[in-house]
C-alpha cells in the first residue's frame, strides 16, 4: 500500500492555538482498521484536551477527535468483520481530527443507508454513552420515567429519541424555549427551560416528584441534590460530566430512604472489550430504529477541518442544538 499523507489538527501547548499539519497516515495494527475519514464529530472532551485538562491515555493518539465516519481503507491482522471499501462510523482512540484515523475493529458500526457521512459521524460517541449509561448501567425498563439533562447536546438529542424508541417516558432540560420545543418534537414528554424555571419544581408540580426512575446528568453542581430529590424509590442516577462543578453540599438521606443507586462513568476510560459489547448490543437493539428513521442524529452545523477553531468556539458558546461536525475529505475511492 503506498504511503498515505494525512492532514491533522495540532494543538500548540503554549497558547492552545490550533493548526493544520501533515504527516504520514498511521498503519492499522492487529484488530484495527484504517479509516479514510469523511467527517468527525466534536465532543466537549476535545475542548478539555485542548486546554490541557483531559490528557489522552498513554496509548492513545495525541490528536483530538473521538469519533469519525468514512470508508475502511486498510485492515490489520485478525480483522474479519470489515473489508476495504466498507462505509463505517466508529469511536477512535483519539486521532479523529484528520484525513485518516485508526479505529479498533470492534468499535466500528455500519452506516445506516438513510444517513450521510456527516450524520453518521454524530453517532458513535453518543450511541455508546447513552447505551452504556441508560440501558446498561441504569438498566432502563420499558414504561419507566427518564430525565435527561443537557437535552440539546448531541448526547441529549439522540438519548431522547433512543429512550422514546425503547418505550421510556422521557423528560429533559435545555436553555431556551426554542430548544425545548424542538426536544419535545423529538419525543420528550416535557422539556423544561432551566433558565426560566426550576426543573425540580416544574416536575414536582407535574406530579413527578419521587417518580423519576432514571436520571442522566452531565451538569452536576446544584443539580445533584435536585436529582436525588426527584428520584423514585430504587431510582438510578448516572453522572457523565459535571459542567457546573464537581462539588456540592448534598443531603444524602433520601439516598438511603429511597434506595437510590448513584453512579458515574466516562466512556474513554473503558476497555476496548467493553466498548465492543456496547457496539454489538447497539446493533441489535438500536440499529433497527436508526434504519427505519425513528431515531436520527441531529446535526447542528458542519465546519471544514481548516475551520476547527471556529467550530470549537461555537461549541463553547453553547448555542448549538445537536452535534457539531468537521468535514475532512471527500471519499470517492476505497471500493
From TrEMBL:
Q: Which InterPro entries match?
A: ADH-like_N, ER, GroES-like_sf, NAD(P)-bd_dom_sf, Quinone_OxRdtase_PIG3
Q: What is the lineage of its organism?
A: Bacteria, Pseudomonadati, Pseudomonadota, Gammaproteobacteria, Cellvibrionales
- Designated name of the protein: Zinc-binding dehydrogenase
MF annotations from Gene Ontology? NADPH binding; oxidoreductase activity, acting on NAD(P)H
Q: Where is the Enoyl reductase (ER) domain?
A: 13-326
Print the keywords alphabetically.
Answer: NADP, Oxidoreductase
Q: Where in this chain does the entry annotate a coiled-coil region?
A: none
Presence of the UniProt keyword NADP in the record: yes
Highest taxon of the lineage: Bacteria
Reply yes or no: does the keyword Oxidoreductase apply. Answer: yes
Amino acid at each position: 500500500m503506498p504511503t498515505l499523507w494525512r492532514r491533522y489538527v495540532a494543538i500548540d501547548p503554549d497558547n492552545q492555538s490550533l493548526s493544520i499539519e501533515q504527516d504520514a497516515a498511521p498503519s492499522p495494527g492487529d484488530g484495527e482498521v484504517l479509516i479514510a475519514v469523511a467527517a468527525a464529530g466534536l465532543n466537549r472532551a476535545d475542548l478539555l484536551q485542548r486546554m490541557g485538562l483531559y490528557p489522552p491515555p498513554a496509548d492513545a493518539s495525541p490528536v483530538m477527535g473521538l469519533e469519525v465516519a468514512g470508508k475502511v481503507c486498510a485492515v490489520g491482522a485478525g480483522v474479519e468483520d470489515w473489508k476495504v471499501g466498507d462505509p463505517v462510523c466508529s469511536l477512535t482512540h483519539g486521532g479523529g481530527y484528520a484525513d485518516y484515523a485508526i479505529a479498533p475493529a470492534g468499535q466500528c458500526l455500519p452506516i445506516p443507508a438513510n444517513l450521510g457521512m456527516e450524520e453518521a459521524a454524530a453517532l458513535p460517541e453518543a450511541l455508546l454513552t447513552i447505551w452504556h449509561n441508560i440501558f446498561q448501567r441504569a438498566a432502563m425498563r420499558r414504561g419507566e420515567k427518564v430525565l435527561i439533562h443537557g437535552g440539546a447536546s448531541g448526547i441529549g438529542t439522540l438519548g431522547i429519541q433512543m429512550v422514546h424508541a425503547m418505550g421510556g417516558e422521557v423528560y429533559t432540560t435545555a436553555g431556551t424555549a426554542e430548544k425545548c420545543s424542538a426536544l419535545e418534537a423529538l419525543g420528550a414528554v416535557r422539556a423544561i427551560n432551566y433558565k426560566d424555571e426550576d426543573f425540580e419544581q416544574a416536575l414536582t408540580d407535574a406530579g413527578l416528584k419521587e417518580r423519576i426512575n432514571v436520571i442522566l446528568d452531565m451538569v452536576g453542581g446544584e443539580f445533584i441534590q435536585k436529582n436525588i430529590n426527584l428520584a423514585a424509590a430504587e431510582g438510578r442516577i448516572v453522572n457523565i460530566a459535571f459542567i457546573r462543578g464537581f462539588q456540592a453540599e448534598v443531603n444524602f438521606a433520601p439516598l438511603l430512604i429511597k434506595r437510590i443507586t448513584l453512579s458515574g462513568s466516562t466512556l474513554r476510560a473503558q476497555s476496548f472489550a467493553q466498548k465492543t459489547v456496547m457496539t454489538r448490543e447497539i446493533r441489535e437493539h438500536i440499529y433497527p430504529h436508526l434504519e427505519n428513521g425513528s431515531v436520527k442524529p441531529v446535526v447542528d452545523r458542519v465546519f471544514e477541518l481548516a475551520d476547527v477553531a471556529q467550530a470549537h468556539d461555537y461549541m463553547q458558546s453553547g448555542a448549538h442544538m445537536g452535534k457539531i461536525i468537521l468535514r475532512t475529505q471527500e471519499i470517492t475511492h476505497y471500493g
